[in-house]
Amino acid sequence: MGPIDRAAVQSALDRFAGKDVYLHLETTNGAYAARDSENAMAICAYIRNGLVRYQRGVIRGDGPYRVGLKMENGWIYAEGLTDWEVDAEGRLLMAGHDAEGRLAIALELSETPFRM
Amino acid sequence: MERHVLVVYPHPDDETFASGGTIALHTRAGTPVTYLCGTLGQMGRNMGKPFFANRETLPDVREKELRAACAALGIQDLRLLGLRDKTVEFEDREQLADRILAVMKEMRPSLLITYYPGFAVHPDHNALGAAAIRAVEKLPANERPVVHCAAFSRDCREKLGDPDVIIDITSVRDVKMAAIRAHRSQSEAMLARMERDPAFRAQREATLRQEVYWTYRV
């Protein structure tokens, strides 16, 4: 993974458009957030291997970046993305890392299911 | 000296951070240690500093790190339960307890080390600790191991009192540090912070001198 190249991510998003694709989307501030700060609560949500199809996928922002995927009946949205790669299996992996290098958000697309 | 120690924790690195010194003392004394590790920490946030793992490579990275840490600690019997990070509390607790029970019947440990249910912050910690204790309950009273629980919630001393088991691990400090370094994806950021933040360093140093437990009365 390396810093997002917006044009390259846009090309990758275009390649998945109009196909059934498996989605991994998550955001988290860590299971210890509530313990380590009086004012915080631990937050995490993820969906793994959601099967989705979008007509239009767009990356915006100057970094960290936002991605919106427009589906026939809804939207998928992610904010805070900093890094990306297309891995050896052709999957588009995007993540947002904080200053400590910890993952705070991930948005991934694949034509085959992600490993469980 | 124990006959056999069974360690039950959900994430690769729990064994090191919570009990690395205790485990090293047991293996040095010649006591066999079996580690039943629940998940591969697939959903961890730490990716190394600078990060070198991603969400999809993390489980393989963490399994390798776990095996290296077990080698450092002298654990020769590592067993993976194959659960998924963050989902342990949603599994069938009786079935999970039965899987732990099967290992206890096989190894007949004299001591079980796990997390104190309700006082270990992460839902996976609390759920696997509860399953391990449920497994002990299923054994006849005269076959039950002693149960030592690690706890670190903000309210653990207020609600449980002071820990009754205090293990001086200074003689195996280097072993615990080696195991911490083996969990590179999880520990690099922490070790970097220890270098620059004296208060944080002092807090972490305490965990290299002493490990504490509460005996769970089943």
Q: Can you describe this structure?
A:
The complex is a heterodimer of chains A (116) and B (218). Chain A has 116 residues and is mainly β. In chain A, 13% of the residues lie in helices and 51% in strands. Chain A is globular, with a radius of gyration of 14 Å. By secondary structure, chain B is of the alpha/beta class. In chain B, 45% of the residues lie in helices and 18% in strands. Chain B contains 8 helices and 7 strands, in the order E-H-E-H-E-H-E-H-E-H-E-H-H-H-E. Chain B has helices at 14-28, 58-73, 93-107, 123-137, 156-160, 173-182, 184-196, 198-206, and strands spanning 5-9, 33-39, 77-83, 111-115, 146-150, 165-168, 210-215. In chain B, helix 4 links the parallel strand 4 and strand 5. The model of chain B has no long low-confidence stretch (mean pLDDT 97). Chain A binds chain B through residues 1, 24, 26, 28, 30-32, 34-35, 44, 46, 83, 85, 87, 91, 93, 95, 97, 100-104, 106, 108, 114-116, and chain B through 43-51, 54-56, 59, 84, 86, 121-124, 152-154, 189, 193.
SSE order and pairing:
The complex is a heterodimer of chains A (116) and B (218).
Chain A: E1 2-3, H1 6-16, E2 21-28, H2 33-36, E3 44-52, E4 54-60, E5 65-71, E6 74-81, E7 83-86, E8 92-97, E9 103-110
Antiparallel strand pairs in A: 1-7, 2-3, 2-9, 4-5, 5-6, 7-8, 8-9
Chain B: E1 5-9, H1 14-28, E2 33-39, H2 58-73, E3 77-83, H3 93-107, E4 111-115, H4 123-137, E5 146-150, H5 156-160, E6 165-168, H6 173-182, H7 184-196, H8 198-206, E7 210-215
Parallel strand pairs in B: 1-2, 1-4, 2-3, 4-5
Antiparallel strand pairs in B: 5-7, 6-7
Helix pairs in contact in B: 1-6, 2-6, 3-4, 7-8
In short:
The complex is a heterodimer of chains A (about 120) and B (about 220). With about 120 residues, chain A is mainly β. Helices cover about 15% and strands about 50% of the residues of chain A.
What key attributes describe this structure?
heterodimer; A: 116 residues; mainly beta; 6-stranded antiparallel beta sheet; 2 helices; 9 strands; B: 218 residues; 7-stranded mixed beta sheet
